[in-house]
C-alpha cells in the first residue's frame, strides 16, 4: 500500500477540521470549561483526600451516643452532619449528598447504617464508621470488664484511659478512602477526556458524511488508489483527531490543574484504546447517516448519554447500582475504571488489563464493523 | 443499433486511448447496460448522449473503475482495467457531474489533494498545480476557500483536479451543468485545447450544441444499449437530409399551397395556420427561390424559415419525445 494517498486523505481531513471554528471551540475550550466547573462543584482538589459526608441521627443522648458522636467527629476522613430524621438521612444517601448515614437509636446498642454497597465513597465511609464504633465499643467492653472484676467506676475509667493511652501508640492508618473515587479535577479531568474524545469523534463524523455526499470518496477511488488506502486514510484522520483531543486534555489538566494521571504506559494504552473505540464509533455513525446535519444531531447526544452512564458527567457514586451496571455495557465506564485506577500512586498497566481487554474488544468490534460497512457503502456508491 | 460502418472510424493503427467492448451490467432483474462498446483514439473527442436513465452513468462508472462490469472489457491506453486497475486508472482523468471537492479547502489545496492521490512528487506537483490553475484561469483565486467560489469557478477546479497527472483520456460527465455562458465558453475552449494537444475525450452532456461543437464522433445510448454511433453528419443523416421549410403567405393561400406541393423536391407539405405552411424538402435551403417563384400570381411569401436537421432532431427521433424523469 502506497503511503502517499493515505497521507493525502489524512492531511486534507485534518486541514478541514482545523477550519471548523465551532468544532475547534468544542475541542479546545469546552472540555476545560467542563473540567473546571464540574471539578469545582465536586470539591476542587486533585486527590481523594476530601472528607466523606456522613449523616447521623441521634435519637437519644446517653453516654454511648455522646461517645460515638465524638469519635465520629474526631475521624479525619468524616464530615459529620447531625440530622433530624432517618427518612432525611436515607434520602441524602440515595441522592448522593451523603456517603453514608448512621442512626443511633435511644437505649439500644444496635446501630442502623445506611449506605450504598457498590458505591466507593459509601464503602469508605462505612469503613471509617466501623473504626469509630469499634473504638467506642472497646471502651464500653473494657469498662464493663473492669467493673465485673470489682473495680469502682472511677478505677474502671482510669484503667480504660490507661488502656487507651497504650493502644494509642499503635497507629492504625485507615486507607479505605482510596477505594472511593477521587474528587475535584482528579475526577473531572479523566471524565472529560473520555467524554470529549468520544463526543468530538462523533462530531467529526459529519465530515465523513459530507465526503460521501460530495462524492469525494467515489472520486478518490477513481485515482490509482486501493480501496483499503481510502478506508485507512479516513480512519486514521478520525483517530488522530481523537488522540489530539485526549493529549490536549491530559497536558492542560496536568499543567494547569496539577492532575496526576499515573503510569504513562498504562494511561497511553487506555487512552489509545479508547481513541480507537471512538474512531470506530465515528466511522460507523459517518457511514450510517445520510446527511451531514444528522451527525451533530445524533453523535454528540449519544456521546453525552454514554458519558452519563459511564460516570463522565457526575460521580458514579451518585448513579446507583443499576445505572453503573448498565454503564459497563459501554466504553466510558471501563475507561473511567482504568484511568481512576491508574491515578492511584503505584498502580501500573497490569492493574488495568481487564479494563484494557474490554476496551480493546469494543474497539475491534466497532472498527471491524464500521470499516466493513464503510467499505461496502463506498463501493456501492459507485 | 444503427451501425455506421463508414470511414468515420479512426483510420489509425494507434492503440486507442480508451476502448471498451461488450460491457454489461445488471442490477437484479434490470439490465442497466448491455453490450456497450466503442473506442476513442488519442486526440479524439467522443460524445455519449442519452436520456436520463439510459445507462450513461453506469457505463462511465465501469470505465473509471467504480463499478465492476458483469462482462466485457475496458482497455485504457492498452491496459486492461480489470487486470491492472492501478496502472489503468493512472491514465484516466475523471470529472464527475457533481462538484466533488472539499469546500473548506482552497482551490490550490484541493488540487494538491488530488495530485497526491495520483502520486505526484511534491515539487512536480507544485509546478503542475500552477500550470493547471493557469489553464483553467483561476491563478488569482487559487488561495481562497472553494466555498467562496462561483458555480463556474468550482466547475473549472473540478476539471483541473482531473488534469494534474496529464491523463491520456479525460472523461467529462456533464461538465457545464449550471454554469453561466462565460464559464461554459471557458470550459469548452479549454477542452478543445486539450483535445488539440492529443488528449482523448469522452464527453457526456444534455446540451447537443456542446457535443456538436466539441466531439467529432458521438454515440447515442438508450435503454442500456448504443443505438447509434458515428460522426455528426452520419448521425444526422439517420433522420434524413431533408430540411424543414416554413413559409408565411399573403394572398390565395389555398392555391399557393397546391402549387408548393407540386414543386419538385418537396416530399411533405402541411398547413400550419390560416396563412402558414410547413414543407419537408430535400435541400430545402436551395429550393427556396423555386418555392417563391411557384406561388407567384396566387400569393406572395412574406416570411421564410429553413430548419436543417441537427443532432437534437436525431436524438429525439431515436430516443423518442417521452419524458424519462
UniProtKB/TrEMBL annotation, chain A:
Q: Where is the ABC transmembrane type-2 domain?
A: 153-377
Please report the record's description of how this protein sits within the membrane: Multi-pass membrane protein
According to the UniProt entry, its GO molecular function terms are: ABC-type transporter activity
Entry keywords, A to Z: Cell membrane, Membrane, Transmembrane, Transmembrane helix, Transport
Family indicated by similarity: Belongs to the ABC-2 integral membrane protein family.
Organism of this sequence: Nonomuraea rhodomycinica
A cellular component annotation (GO) from this entry: plasma membrane
Kindly list the residue ranges recorded as spanning the membrane: 21-42, 191-209, 236-259, 265-285, 297-316, 352-374
Name where it mostly resides: membrane
Question: Where in or outside the cell?
Answer: Cell membrane
The leader peptide range reads none
Q: What is this protein called?
A: ABC transporter permease
Report the domain of life of the source organism: Bacteria
TrEMBL record, chain B:
> What highest taxon heads this organism's lineage?
Bacteria
- Which terms in the Gene Ontology molecular function aspect does this entry carry? ATP binding; ATP hydrolysis activity
Domain ABC transporter residue range list: 18-248
* Keyword terms, alphabetized: ATP-binding, Nucleotide-binding
| Gene3D superfamilies named among the record's database cross-references | P-loop containing nucleotide triphosphate hydrolases
Q: Cite a single Pfam family from the UniProt record.
A: ABC_tran
Name of the protein this chain belongs to: ABC transporter ATP-binding protein
Which source organism does the UniProt entry give?
A: Nonomuraea rhodomycinica
Q: Tell me the lineage of the source organism.
A: Bacteria, Bacillati, Actinomycetota, Actinomycetes, Streptosporangiales
Amino acid at each position: 500500500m502506497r503511503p502517499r494517498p493515505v497521507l493525502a486523505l489524512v492531511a486534507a481531513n485534518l486541514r478541514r477540521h482545523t477550519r471548523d471554528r465551532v468544532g475547534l471551540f468544542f475541542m479546545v475550550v469546552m472540555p476545560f470549561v467542563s473540567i473546571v466547573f464540574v471539578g469545582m462543584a465536586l470539591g476542587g482538589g486533585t486527590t481523594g483526600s476530601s472528607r466523606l459526608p456522613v449523616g447521623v441521627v441521634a435519637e437519644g443522648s446517653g453516654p454511648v451516643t455522646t461517645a460515638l458522636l465524638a469519635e465520629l467527629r474526631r475521624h479525619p476522613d468524616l464530615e459529620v452532619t447531625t440530622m433530624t430524621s432517618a427518612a432525611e438521612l436515607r434520602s441524602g444517601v440515595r441522592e448522593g449528598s451523603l456517603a453514608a448515614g448512621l442512626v443511633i437509636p435511644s437505649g439500644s446498642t444496635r446501630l442502623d447504617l445506611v449506605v450504598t454497597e457498590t458505591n466507593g465513597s459509601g464503602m469508605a465511609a462505612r469503613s471509617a464508621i466501623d473504626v469509630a464504633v469499634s473504638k467506642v465499643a472497646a471502651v464500653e467492653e473494657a469498662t464493663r470488664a473492669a467493673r465485673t472484676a470489682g473495680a469502682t467506676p472511677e478505677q474502671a475509667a482510669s484503667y480504660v484511659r490507661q488502656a487507651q493511652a497504650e493502644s494509642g501508640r499503635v497507629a492504625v492508618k485507615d486507607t479505605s478512602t482510596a477505594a472511593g473515587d477521587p474528587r475535584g479535577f482528579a475526577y473531572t479531568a479523566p471524565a472529560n477526556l473520555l467524554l470529549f474524545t468520544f463526543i468530538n469523534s462523533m462530531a467529526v463524523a459529519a465530515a465523513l458524511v459530507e465526503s460521501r455526499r460530495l462524492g469525494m470518496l467515489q472520486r478518490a477511488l477513481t485515482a490509482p488508489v486501493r480501496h483499503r488506502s481510502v478506508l485507512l486514510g479516513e480512519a486514521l484522520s478520525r483517530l488522530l483527531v481523537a488522540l489530539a483531543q485526549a493529549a490536549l486534555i491530559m497536558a492542560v489538566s496536568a499543567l494547569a490543574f496539577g492532575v496526576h494521571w499515573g503510569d504513562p504506559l498504562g494511561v497511553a494504552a487506555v487512552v489509545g484504546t479508547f481513541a480507537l473505540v471512538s474512531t470506530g464509533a465515528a466511522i460507523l455513525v459517518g457511514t450510517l447517516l445520510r446527511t451531514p446535519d444528522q451527525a451533530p444531531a445524533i453523535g454528540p447526544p449519544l456521546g453525552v448519554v454514554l458519558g452519563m452512564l459511564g460516570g463522565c458527567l457526575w460521580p458514579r457514586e451518585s448513579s446507583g447500582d443499576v445505572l453503573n451496571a448498565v454503564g459497563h455495557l459501554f466504553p466510558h465506564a471501563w475507561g473511567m475504571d482504568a484511568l481512576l485506577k491508574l491515578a492511584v500512586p503505584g498502580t501500573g498497566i497490569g492493574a488495568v488489563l481487564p479494563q484494557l481487554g474490554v476496551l480493546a474488544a469494543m474497539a475491534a468490534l466497532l472498527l471491524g464493523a464500521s470499516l466493513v460497512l464503510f467499505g461496502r457503502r463506498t463501493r456501492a456508491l459507485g | 443499433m444503427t451501425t455506421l460502418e463508414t470511414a468515420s472510424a479512426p483510420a489509425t493503427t494507434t492503440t486507442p486511448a480508451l476502448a471498451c467492448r461488450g460491457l454489461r451490467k445488471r442490477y437484479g432483474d434490470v439490465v442497466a447496460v448491455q453490450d456497450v462498446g466503442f473506442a476513442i483514439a488519442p486526440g479524439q473527442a467522443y460524445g455519449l448522449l442519452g436520456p436520463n436513465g439510459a445507462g450513461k452513468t453506469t457505463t462511465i462508472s465501469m470505465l473509471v473503475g467504480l463499478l465492476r462490469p458483469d462482462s466485457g472489457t475496458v482497455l485504457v491506453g492498452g491496459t486492461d482495467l480489470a487486470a491492472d486497475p492501478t496502472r489503468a486508472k493512472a491514465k484516466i482523468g475523471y470529472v464527475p457531474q457533481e462538484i466533488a471537492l472539499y469546500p473548506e479547502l482552497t482551490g490550490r489545496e484541493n488540487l494538491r489533494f488530488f495530485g497526491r492521490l495520483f502520486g505526484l512528487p511534491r515539487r512536480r506537483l507544485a509546478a503542475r498545480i500552477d500550470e493547471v490553475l493557469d489553464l483553467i484561469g483561476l491563478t488569482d483565486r487559487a488561495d481562497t476557500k472553494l466555498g467562496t467560489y462561483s458555480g463556474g469557478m468550482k466547475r473549472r477546479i473540478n476539471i483541473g483536479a482531473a488534469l494534474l497527472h496529464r491523463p491520456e483520456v479525460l472523461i467529462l460527465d456533464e461538465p457545464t451543468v449550471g454554469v453561466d455562458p462565460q464559464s461554459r465558453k471557458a470550459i469548452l475552449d479549454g477542452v478543445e485545447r486539450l483535445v488539440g494537444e492529443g488528449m482523448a475525450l469522452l464527453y457526456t452532456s444534455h446540451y447537443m450544441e456542446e457535443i456538436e461543437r466539441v466531439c467529432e464522433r458521438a454515440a447515442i445510448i438508450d435503454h442500456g444499449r448504443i443505438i447509434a454511433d458515428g460522426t455528426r453528419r452520419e448521425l444526422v443523416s439517420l433522420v434524413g437530409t431533408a430540411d424543414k421549410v416554413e413559409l408565411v403567405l399573403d394572398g390565395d393561400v389555398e392555391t399557393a399551397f397546391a402549387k408548393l406541393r407540386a414543386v419538385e423536391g418537396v416530399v411533405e407539405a402541411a398547413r400550419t395556420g390560416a396563412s402558414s405552411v410547413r414543407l419537408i424538402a430535400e435541400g430545402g435551403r436551395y429550393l427556396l427561390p423555386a418555392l417563391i417563384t411557384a406561388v407567384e400570381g396566387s400569393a406572395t411569401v412574406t416570411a421564410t424559415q429553413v430548419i436543417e436537421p441537427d443532432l437534437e432532431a436525431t436524438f429525439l427521433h431515436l430516443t423518442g419525445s417521452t419524458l424519462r424523469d
